[in-house]
Amino acid sequence: MTAINDVTTLTRDGDIAIVTLNSPPVNALSAKVREGLFEGFKQAIADDQAKAIVLICEGRTFIAGADITEFGQAPKGPGLHEVQQMIEDAPKPVVAAIHGTALGGGLEVALVCHYRVAVPSAKMGLPEVNLGLLPGAGGTQRLPRVTGVEKALEMMTSGRHASAKEAKESGLADEIVEEGKLLDGAVAFARKAVAENWPLVKIRERDDKVAEARGKPEVFEAFRKSVARKTRGFLAPEYNIQCIEAAVNLPFDEGMKVEAKLFRELVTGSQSAAQRHVFFAERQVAKIPDVPKETPLIDIKSVGIIGAGTMGGGIAMNFANAGIPVTIIEQSQDRLDAGLGVVRKNYENSAKKGRFSMDEVEKRMGLLQGSTSLEDLADKDLVIEAIFENMDVKKDVFGKLDKIVKQGAILATNTSALDIDEIATATSRPEAVIGLHFFSPANVMKLLEIVRADKTSKEVIATSMALSKKIGKIGVLVGVCPGFVGNRLLAQRQREANKLILEGAMPWDVDRVLFGFGLPMGPFAMSDLAGLDLGWNKETSKGETLRDLLCERDRRGQKTGAGFYDYDENRTPSPSKEVEELIRQYAEERQFQQRDISDQEILERCLYPMVNEGAKILEEGKAIRTSDIDIVWIMGYGWPRYEGGPMWWGENVVGLDKVLAKMKEWDAADTSGTGVFKPSALLEKAVADKVSLQKALEG
Ligand code: T1G
């Protein structure tokens, strides 16, 4: 056995050389790994006793891609293309032995090997698009030559991982070997290739699969249309498509030049920097400085949920989906039946869409028991209250839970803004109380704000964080403050949007600017969708606010065919002349000066205060890091990943100095006395010291 370097060894099994990588956590193609591959293959090729070579990895996975932590650094060691050239030109068969996830550069290394074998649990993909990139090591030219153009288009623009079975069917894998016997299987396969003198397959020399799409630009146009909505605003999907067009229409080496050019554009651009930031931010959220990894977890075997409304039912589905039995409490059998009926309907709709079988519907429904008695929650390990958003009602319920539920259970509230420290005072066990703020629809939205109260114990926090992953959520730990993190930033945007339409912009102007920025929907379209009459009623309406006036005119949103917008029978919105006149009159009566407002001002007024508020949240210790705030807004409110999240965007696209200057300008001009534009001290410090907010926070 030869140690090539500290992550690569070279051994021989008879006449088969074996290059083994062992570079945790995912054998990413760091400089050391590339060095080891280059030197290891050089020696294996030079070894006349070795009639073939197997490339295999120790640990959890085959190479999972380029080392994303190396991006932006000066390149060291042999380049990936050099390593690939060495492998592809080897004068003897090279077999990639794949387990875990062969992704990105990892699959691109496997594609220059002559053959690929995999275990049944292996997965393969080119997910660079999720990092705002494209496969930059020949993947865009080789994948379509193996799988054909349509599958390559779908795989590269979705970034999904193909199973070993699919890989075998599409020609990406040549053989599936027994689980747990990858090395033996790969060596036997290599030996067979030698014994039967198989040709050394170079994918770059194949043309049949790409030729099928030659002269058919409609294949690409149809595909572009099919992904347009999902990829709106993202550069990388289109660049991936263009590389595949090059693979169809140009000789291999020319196609490689197109790939290199477009890769360089993406990797040096802001979108990829933002998406790489999000990749790491999504993993950082799980790290809680004062809650060590070793913190013991409470075993959550059964869950109680109080409230079978939209939120309670949606929350219950998350646990049933994870196979955890749930008891749902409602005040009456009718409300219980209605709530469980909605859950069943949701499951049946998913089954109709082919997501799972009707048997699975019954299995999950079987995990949901209904009751009208809180006493039935006595033995639950976790109880989540999802009832009316009123402090007295919540404190009353928590007082009862404190008497009923076994010691050691977690008592959680789904409140979206109320003070959880106060709710905890209704119990004798504040250390067991935590906020689990789900976002509607609770069974769909990935974000879960986990709200630690002053006395919440580390075990309860650690258990809640682990549980969020188990039920498929991204749990972000936040502190108790009005609106926690997500809604607290939203309030900043909402306030400015509501003022802008009194100062001369129209709702459709604000929505257009924010939709154009990449948010899924503007605030006024969102209000029409949710309904303007939430919490409003005719009897008590005083006709004071714009919303009162709209609701009194039965303009309650999409459901009444009119809200801020007019809607046709297909609910297609159009600006409303009536609303425009109503707004102008309402503004004049309140002495608002109307003026032309630019799109830039709309964007700044809506988004800069969010950055400033995020800095205040950090200052107050209500979020651990700026990237957690980014994740909250990406996962919970649809902030575009290619803009990195509000804090990343404020720092890396706008510049904190510009945000601060505007906050100061608006603060100086503000006569409301509310201080809403007061610049965050942390923001001022970061700008003064010319450091990031995180650095300024860490001192
Ligand atoms: N580079 C560096 N670190 C990586 C990494 C990578 N490619 N992939 C994962 N990690 C770290 C991750 O940050 C975490 O670190 C730990 O590994 C476990 O990851 C030339 C240019 C492989 C499916 O996009 O999809 O190749 O937090 O928590 O849930 O064309 O990681 O423990 O310190 O996610 O089991 C293309 C990205 C790169 C794959 C495993 N490859 N990784 O998931 O564990 S660009 C990717 C993943 C490229 C070429 C281009 C997942 C995973 P820490 P984890 P997991």
TrEMBL record:
<keyword id="KW-0520">NAD</keyword>
<dbReference type="GO" id="GO:0003857">
    <property type="term" value="F:(3S)-3-hydroxyacyl-CoA dehydrogenase (NAD+) activity"/>
</dbReference>
<dbReference type="InterPro" id="IPR006176">
    <property type="entry name" value="3-OHacyl-CoA_DH_NAD-bd"/>
</dbReference>
<dbReference type="GO" id="GO:0006635">
    <property type="term" value="P:fatty acid beta-oxidation"/>
</dbReference>
<feature type="domain" description="3-hydroxyacyl-CoA dehydrogenase C-terminal">
    <location>
        <begin position="602"/>
        <end position="692"/>
    </location>
</feature>
<dbReference type="InterPro" id="IPR018376">
    <property type="entry name" value="Enoyl-CoA_hyd/isom_CS"/>
</dbReference>
<dbReference type="GO" id="GO:0070403">
    <property type="term" value="F:NAD+ binding"/>
</dbReference>
<keyword id="KW-0560">Oxidoreductase</keyword>
<keyword id="KW-0442">Lipid degradation</keyword>
<dbReference type="InterPro" id="IPR006108">
    <property type="entry name" value="3HC_DH_C"/>
</dbReference>
<comment type="subunit">
    <text>Monomer.</text>
</comment>
<dbReference type="Pfam" id="PF00378">
    <property type="entry name" value="ECH_1"/>
</dbReference>
<keyword id="KW-0511">Multifunctional enzyme</keyword>
<dbReference type="Pfam" id="PF00725">
    <property type="entry name" value="3HCDH"/>
</dbReference>
<keyword id="KW-0456">Lyase</keyword>
<comment type="pathway">
    <text>Lipid metabolism; fatty acid beta-oxidation.</text>
</comment>
<keyword id="KW-0576">Peroxisome</keyword>
<dbReference type="Pfam" id="PF02737">
    <property type="entry name" value="3HCDH_N"/>
</dbReference>
<keyword id="KW-0276">Fatty acid metabolism</keyword>
<feature type="domain" description="3-hydroxyacyl-CoA dehydrogenase C-terminal">
    <location>
        <begin position="483"/>
        <end position="567"/>
    </location>
</feature>
<feature type="domain" description="3-hydroxyacyl-CoA dehydrogenase NAD binding">
    <location>
        <begin position="303"/>
        <end position="478"/>
    </location>
</feature>
<comment type="similarity">
    <text>In the N-terminal section; belongs to the enoyl-CoA hydratase/isomerase family.</text>
</comment>
<keyword id="KW-0443">Lipid metabolism</keyword>
<comment type="similarity">
    <text>Belongs to the enoyl-CoA hydratase/isomerase family.</text>
</comment>
<protein>
    <submittedName>
        <fullName>3-hydroxyacyl-CoA dehydrogenase</fullName>
    </submittedName>
</protein>
<dbReference type="InterPro" id="IPR001753">
    <property type="entry name" value="Enoyl-CoA_hydra/iso"/>
</dbReference>
<keyword id="KW-0413">Isomerase</keyword>
<dbReference type="GO" id="GO:0004300">
    <property type="term" value="F:enoyl-CoA hydratase activity"/>
</dbReference>
<dbReference type="GO" id="GO:0016853">
    <property type="term" value="F:isomerase activity"/>
</dbReference>
<dbReference type="InterPro" id="IPR036291">
    <property type="entry name" value="NAD(P)-bd_dom_sf"/>
</dbReference>
<dbReference type="InterPro" id="IPR029045">
    <property type="entry name" value="ClpP/crotonase-like_dom_sf"/>
</dbReference>
<dbReference type="InterPro" id="IPR008927">
    <property type="entry name" value="6-PGluconate_DH-like_C_sf"/>
</dbReference>
